[in-house]
Specification:
The protein is mainly α. Helix content is about 75%, strand content about 0%. It is globular, with a radius of gyration of 20 Å. The protein is built from eleven helices and no strands. Helix 2 (about 20-45) runs parallel beside helix 4 (about 80-110). It has a domain at about 1-210.
């Protein structure tokens, strides 16, 4: 049974377009860089806190590596022309690489990567990171528009999960843009410490929303291995989307109110816990109903 699922995953590589395979490989490299920096940080006993911590190289490598590979996988189900696909995914890939390289470089130099205008070089790095963030927003918006523009050839449950995942990814990227705008404004006003404080308060929302693009389509894809009819799969996907939306909304309210997630009022903590439990429950249902291989498990590329 395990070999069945492994084979289904391998199809994404073997049946993927060249730009998708490039994204998968690049995502693996970025993820590995995050792991290497994590080992170095643990071995060195360095701090995990503050803008100078090697933690940023860890989180950027892991997060962008995972997100790039996920976006490549999810976008393979979208109806896109060859040139549009190469442009959007290629730009997303390039921006992801630049973000990780620059953040990692600054972390190893022992200087802040964002909101750092101490020298002309640091200013260039900070502005390049901001431009890279803008590229990520534009390309993700392109994928989102494509997801809603055409129904594609996939099952309705997977189509819905892809659309929802991309919408929440847009929330994450928009939050990142707000973080940069807040930080730059505070730094230009002469208070760099305020820049890291105000921008940092939005990190929980940015992090939570960033990976719905993996969780929601991943659940819908996993459900294709089950013997559940499409109507049941659609119901589970809708429940997962609702739970994720509640959790993201709660974290968002806390973030903009400046409330640490683990120090939030009890009603917020309860909502977060319940929504996470429901989301996990949909995954458990999918795992408990895993069945034999089905014809629809093959990777489909609607617009080759």
């Amino acid at each position: 049974m395990t070999s069945l699922y492994a084979a289904a995953v391998r199809r994404f590589w073997h049946e993927g377009r060249p730009v998708e395979r490039l994204a998968y490989g690049t995502g693996a490299v970025l993820f590995t860089s995050g792991m290497v920096n994590a080992v170095v940080l643990l071995a060195s006993g360095g701090t995990w806190l503050g803008p100078l911590s090697l933690r940023k190289a860890v989180t950027f490598g892991l997060s962008f590596g995972l997100t790039l590979a996920t976006v490549a996988c999810v976008s393979s189900f979208l109806v896109l022309g060859s040139r549009a696909r190469k442009t959007l995914l290629g730009a997303f890939l390039g921006a992801s690489v630049i973000e990780v390289i620059l953040v990692t470089m600054q972390a190893w130099r022992g200087v802040p990567s964002h909101f750092n205008f101490a020298t002309s070089f640091d200013t260039t790095v900070s502005m390049t990171l901001a431009i890279g963030g803008a590229v990520l927003v534009v390309t993700a918006l392109g994928f989102t528009v494509a997801a809603f523009r055409s129904p594609g050839t996939e099952s309705p449950s997977l189509r819905l999960a892809v659309r929802a995942g991309l919408v929440v990814l847009m929330v994450a990227l928009a939050t990142g843009a707000v973080m940069i705008a807040r930080g730059v404004t505070a730094t230009r006003s002469g208070d760099p410490q305020l820049a890291y404080t105000t921008a940092g308060s939005l990190k929980p929302l940015h992090a939570v929303a960033m990976h719905a693009i993996l969780v929601l389509p991943g659940l819908a894809w996993l459900l294709r291995f089950t013997d559940l009819p499409e109507a049941r799969r659609m119901l589970l996907v809708r429940i997962a989307i609702a739970a994720d939306a509640v959790f993201t909304a709660v974290i968002g309210v806390e973030a903009f109110a400046g409330i640490p997630p683990f120090a939030a009022p009890v009603p917020y903590l309860v909502l977060s816990a319940v929504s996470l439990a429901v989301l996990a429950g949909t995954g458990l249902v999918a795992v408990s109903r895993l069945g034999q291989d089905q014809p629809q498990l093959r990777v489909k590329h609607p617009a080759r």
